[in-house]
Amino acid sequence: MSTTIALNEDASGKHASAENYLADRVEGHPKQLYLLFFTEMWERFSFYGMRALLVLFMVNQLKYADAKANLIYGTYTALVYLMPLFGGIAADKFIGYRKAIILGGTLMAAGHLILALPTEWSFFAGMAFLISGNGFFKPNISTMVGKLYRPEDGRRDGAFSIFYMGVNLGAFLGSLLCGWIGQKVNWHYGFGLAGIFMVVGLITFLMGQKSLGEIGLTPKDESGKGVEMYKQISILVASLLVIPIFIYLFNNYEIMGNIMFPICIIATLAMIFIAFRQESVESRNKMLTAIILVAFSVLFWAFYEQGGGSLNLYSDRNVNMHGMSSAAINNSINPFYIILLSFPFAWMWLRLAQSGKEPSTPMKFSMSFFQLALGFFLFVVGAKLAGGDGRVSFFWYALGYLLLTTGELCISPIGLSMITKLSPPKFTGMMMGFWFLASALGQHLAGWIGTLMAISEGGEQESISAVESLAVYSGVFMKIVYVSAGGGLVLLLLVPLLKRWMHGVK
């Protein structure tokens, strides 16, 4: 049954009247959007609450060198975004989106609670559970948002912007609360609070999933037969078997590049092969456009995701945080901006679409790169104006992050929407996984870029002053400005071609 028909049915599967169908819509969007909004909000509370503490915990508590902490962080975040490729396939072919979300949420709740244990083994083990769970949760809840709308529905980009506000409301609260508690009270209390709210997110979805009708149920073949139970159970077993592999990779983080690059190359070639196997030129061109834009997103995330690594350490060492913990402020400022801007952006895209002036998806991607470049340039300006103590005014830091945030709003929710619009229906979950795979490679590169700004060699002694560290950070930031602006220019030149290949899809 098509998604659009499913939206016209009540929980029993019977067709609802037109009046009931309209009553089920809130603010012009299906009420199911808000179920997914709150589920994702609490999951992101837990994820970003833990992320706020990760690098600082390794450097300040475990006494890891900056380079080691950045590379382990890059390994963790790369695996977090690599697993959705497999979780998307598992949902498409075997267990459906709903079971994938429930399985992922359960594994993530376990991971956060393991991290709360003050033991030596719990750090890597907890992160391994989080990676496995995120692989099933993240791509499939995003895919379900897209399935609430018809392909030609102009509200889709706005819906993803609203959904993205839920992501960032959770990220703001999680970063602020877990970051402050972890850095000021106890690291493991911060990790434990993240676990509690992951459980809240899982309960939210379980209580409201009936309203989704047939969306996200276990897939069926052409004869209407569902997937055999042993195949579904095998997915559960596999989700647990990969955990020791992740723990091994944390202990051997140097080999991560030897894994990421071959996987990304093979996946890209596979997607191109699938694109050329499409029956129509239109489907082929749409999928190729999506692949090209996904490839560019790697560069964006490599720079943008300094937020959880080098920018965390930079804010701790060189930014005047006015008495707050750096984890709480640094990791909550970006989601705070998104909370303020998501609805205005959703309104802006809708109004531009209604007037026929909405920028195309490739143009929005290009705009994101230019804003990223300007944001890092403002970091450099702030460094130039720093006092003799090597401390940067929070004003310049916050202003730079504002531009990073507006850039993110032009690529992240738009990219999620783009995948659902340009992918062939039976490959939507796989392409959503491919989108997150590109993020995984970007995260891995972000860790490597972070090593270029390594200051501490580990241990108890800090070997460099704030003035000296400021020069290191600002020098790398300026290089990011040049490369980001170059990426935006290349995309700008490609806009006319990619617009033609999209065949009228915005």
Q: What is the count of β-strands? A: 2
Characterize the main sheet: 2 strands, antiparallel
What number of structural domains do the residues give?
Answer: 1
Structural class: mainly alpha
Write the CATH homologous superfamily. MFS general substrate transporter like domains
Can you describe this structure?
This protein is an all-alpha fold. The protein has a single domain (28-501), classed as MFS general substrate transporter like domains (Growth Hormone, Chain: A, Up-down Bundle), CATH 1.20.1250.20. The protein contains 17 helices and two strands. It has helices at 3-6, 18-23, 32-61, 66-115, 122-146, 156-184, 187-208, 229-251, 256-276, 281-304, 310-318, 326-354, 361-384, 394-409, 412-422, 428-451, 466-501; strands spanning 25-26, 29-30. Helix 4 (66-115) packs across helix 7 (187-208), helix 11 (310-318) packs across helix 12 (326-354) and helix 13 packs antiparallel against helix 14 (394-409). Mean pLDDT is 82; it is low at 1-26.
